[in-house]
Amino acid sequence: MKALMFGWEFPPHILGGLGTASYGLTRGMAMQNDMEITFVIPKPHGDEDQSFLKIIGASNVPVVWKENDWNYVNNRIGRMMHPDEYFWLRNGIKYDFRRIHTNDLGCIDFSGRYPNNLIEEISNYEAVASVLAHKMDFDIIHSHDWLTYPAGVFAKKISGKPLVIHVHATDFDRSRGQVNPTVYGIEKRGMDAADHIMTVSNLTRAIVIEKYHQDPRKVTTVHNAVEPVSDIESFTKTPRKDKVVTFLGRITMQKGPEYFVEAAYRVLQKTKDVRFVMAGSGDMMNAMIDLVAKRNIADRFHFTGFLKGRQVHEMLAESDVYIMPSVSEPFGISPLEAMQVGTPSIISKQSGCAEILTHAIKTDYWDIDAMADAIYAIVKNPAMHKSLQDLGLDEVNNIKWEDAGRKVRAIYESVM
Amino acid sequence: MKNICFYFQLHQPLRLKRYRFFEIGQDHYYYDDFQAEERIRYFVEKAYLPANQTIAEMIRSSNGKFRCAYSISGITLEQLEQYAPEVIDSFKELAKTGSVEFLAEPYAHSLSSVFDANEFEMQVKMHSDKIEALFGKRPTTLFNAELIYSDEIGELVSKMGYKTMMIDEAKQILGWKSPNYVYSHSYAPKLKLLVRNHKLSDDIAFRFSSMYLTSESFIGWIASLPEGEKVVNIGLGYEAFGITQSSQSGIFDFLKSLPYHAMEQQIGFMMPSEIRKNNESAGQLSVPYPMSWVGKDKNLTPWTGNDLQQEALNKLYAVGERVRLCSDKPLLRDWLMLQTTDNFRYMSHKDAYGTHFENAYDAFMNYMNVLADFLVRVDDQYPTSIENEELNELLKTITQQEKEIETLEDEVKKLKSRKQKTVIE
Questions:
Q1: To 10 degrees, the CA torsion angle through B374, B378, B379, B382?
Q2: Is A316:A246 a contact under the CB 8 Å cutoff?
Q3: Domains within chain A, CATH numbers bracketed
Q4: What ranges in A295-342 are assigned the alpha helix state H?
Q5: What is the C-alpha end-to-end distance of chain B, expressed in Å?
Q6: What pLDDT does A79 receive?
Q7: Could you give the percent of chain B with pLDDT greater than 70?
Q8: Residue B412 DSSP class
Q9: pLDDT per residue over A57-67, tens digit each?
Q10: Closest chain B CA to residue A349
């Protein structure tokens, strides 16, 4: 079976959880022998792992016919794509996209990030999808997250192949309910056009059904999993006098950082040998620094700024408790990563991963008392820490992408 | 002639309220009274009262031939006294008939038999005192909490003067043996063991309505048991009558018709102490490891199976000796309540029966916060920096000094009066 997937991020160059999930899922699906995946991303860097799937960079796909020399093309994009493929795809240009600004190769320069002209990039992505849909051979289209829905829908219209969309988040999660009408429109059109909708949790499934008015029969939950960490032994915990409690993620409204600060304040009223770390950056960072100062706990509360790659796991491994007080988290993979390196997690009940975790503490995001209580219990009770650590490790090691991949495959088959 | 020995267990834990860590050292009241009252009233109205009425009627209509036994935990008795004294009265009425025996059990429905022998002895005595005070007769049969039993516990119980003990039917101890005989302790032969017939007991307690059980067939099964099997022990939670099996299921009618069918088949009813008197032991049972009446494996894992439970139990029982030195009444009461088995059952990952917590961790956190406050209070009474032995010595010296002062005062008084006399003379 050949699947054409539209994504936005792919490791190693990732900005959020979407890239990690895309990688894990495709890897898990590639374990099925007859699965061929072509994964489209806006801007490839050439260092993506292509051992189990084929990556096509949208920024290398011509959408406007330009006459070019083979050697010139090789020079320009040979690092990422074979020039023959470029010329082959060029034959797939069936529409006039000259209104779009293209470069010397007739390709669009995608940023591959989340720029200010995001909506424009999304619609440019559609143009690329049209070329691919005309030229390529595939059985199913799979779009990851709202940025790629229009591309998926367009590819479906051209090819007549079924479309499944994968909802990694909705605008209701990102905005605490204050949805952007443009974004909502894109999401809704994508969902309406899809043959089936996959959501990363039942929480998201409920939002899709209620807020986007989708038929429940058309929406299935496929929980995310977590990739095993290969060099797990290299992450160690330095013995410290003080316990470390960590928040890690974008410091934005969605992640509920202020609840973490308030819980920290409560814990520090009772005990002094705990330190709190807020790792990450985001638009609420300065407000959080202010709040910490106002609560008078700045001597015990630390900000690290943005962490990436290995640093993330190092930070998690050095912590005694990981906390994710998200107000609305479609899935939330980081608690699973924390558990992989043996760090107990406290998660909000409003997180999708709470649906599949037993050996993690779950509280309401607003229940600062419960959160503080859980932090206190874990840092003060070795038995609690050990139980969560041991049983949590067992649990997380059994959450496999391969299983998620099998579920996705079954959904593919049901719509074909 | 075969005999059926019915015994019923009544136990309701005093549930802990939500207790956050910042309350440690601030708030010393640990219980959710509202929940306690609501729950006990529910059990009383749905099960205990109607069941007591039914039993009373059965005793009356059978001219006292129907006989049974009750094991009511001390904690439950306290709650009944507080929230439903009419149930205590109705038990007193039952006690007057002479057809009802009350069994002894550790007051707090605790695991003390496994973790703290002194505490166990103290609690059983405390419970027997309470039963004697309420119902006028001191128990001779022991029903340990959750039917926990081992050779070691049996030996202790025998030394304490109890003659009969109830245990459960478990493959690992009975093997091919039938539960329908009287057995005895493996090396303290004075202690007789009554083995609960697991299948027949659960037929009533859990399968009554699903298997459309009738008293006729139930008695029929007992009548068709082999000739030598003379004793059938049926033990179950009293909430089976009216709650586990709702009154609409006909469970009360089932009960009422039991004596009639039994007499028809020449089957009698006996209380545990009568069974002991009328039956010789068929053999000894060796139980090297503690067993209980819960689960398939019938061991202690529902309370002690994971790290959380172990931690909580160890921290709790570590202060046992010290608490027993204290005389602070509220502290001693809390000590009992914190020992109730349910607290630890709620911490089980797999088998948290009856829990009001979200999960094992939630239960553990809450309990440990309460325990932390409790330990602070114990420490306030006698600082942990002093060793137990040292403390004992100090306490002894104090009491000796007190006595000495008393005797000296007496002497002073005597001398004074003598002096007065001599002055008068």
A1: 180
A2: yes
A3: 2-225+402-415 (3.40.50.2000), 232-397 (3.40.50.2000)
A4: 310-318, 334-340
A5: 83
A6: 87
A7: 100
A8: H
A9: 999 999 999 99
A10: B358
- Domain span including residue B75: 2-285
Sheet holding A36-41, edge to edge: A54-57, A36-41, A2-6, A140-144, A163-167, A196-199, A219-221
- Would you say residue B343 lies in a domain? no
| Chain B closest-CA separation from residue A394 CA (Å) | 14
Under a CB-based contact definition with an 8 Å cutoff, are residues B349 and B366 in contact? no
Name which of B309, B364, B365 to mutate to probe chain A: the one with the most chain A Cβ atoms within 10 A of its Cβ. Answer: B365
Instruction: Give the span between the Cα atoms of A99 and A102, in whole angstroms.
Output: 9
pLDDT of residue A229: 84
* CATH classification at residue B66: 3.20.110.20
Six-digit token pair at B49? 């009262």
Nearest C-alpha of chain B: how many angstroms from A270?
A: 7
Q: Among partner residues B20, B311, B359, which is closest to A383 by beta-carbon distance?
A: B311
pLDDT digits (tens, 9 = 90+) for A246-303: 999 889 988 999 999 999 999 999 999 999 999 999 999 999 999 999 999 999 999 9
With beta carbons under 8 A apart, name residues in chain B contacting A370: 20
Query: What's the N-to-C CA distance of chain A in angstroms?
Result: 11
- For A257-295, letters b (16+ CB in 10 Å) and e give bbbbbbbbbbbbebeeebbbbbbbbbebbeebbebbeee
Residue contact B24–A369, C-beta within 8 A: no
ipTM of the complex: 0.82
pLDDT tens for each residue of B164-206: 999 999 988 998 999 999 999 999 999 999 999 999 999 999 9
- Sheet containing A243-248: give its strands across: A301-305, A274-279, A243-248, A321-324, A345-348, A361-363
Nearest to B365 among A266, A377, A386 (CB): A377
d(CA B338, CA B293): 21
Does B22 contact chain A (CB < 8 Å)? yes
Asked, for residue B388, whether it belongs to a domain, the answer is no
Give the mutation candidate from A359, A384, A385 for the B interface (greatest B CB count, under 10 A).
Answer: A384
**Domain assignment present for B308:** no
Cβ pair B308:A383 closer than 8 A: yes
Length in residues, chain A: 416
Of all helices (H) and strands (E), which one includes residue A245? strand A243-248
Residue B425 has pLDDT above 70, yes or no: no
Q: Do B21 and A372 touch (CB under 8 A)?
A: yes
Average per-residue pLDDT for chain A: 93
Residue A327 C-alpha, separation from nearest chain B C-alpha, in angstroms: 20
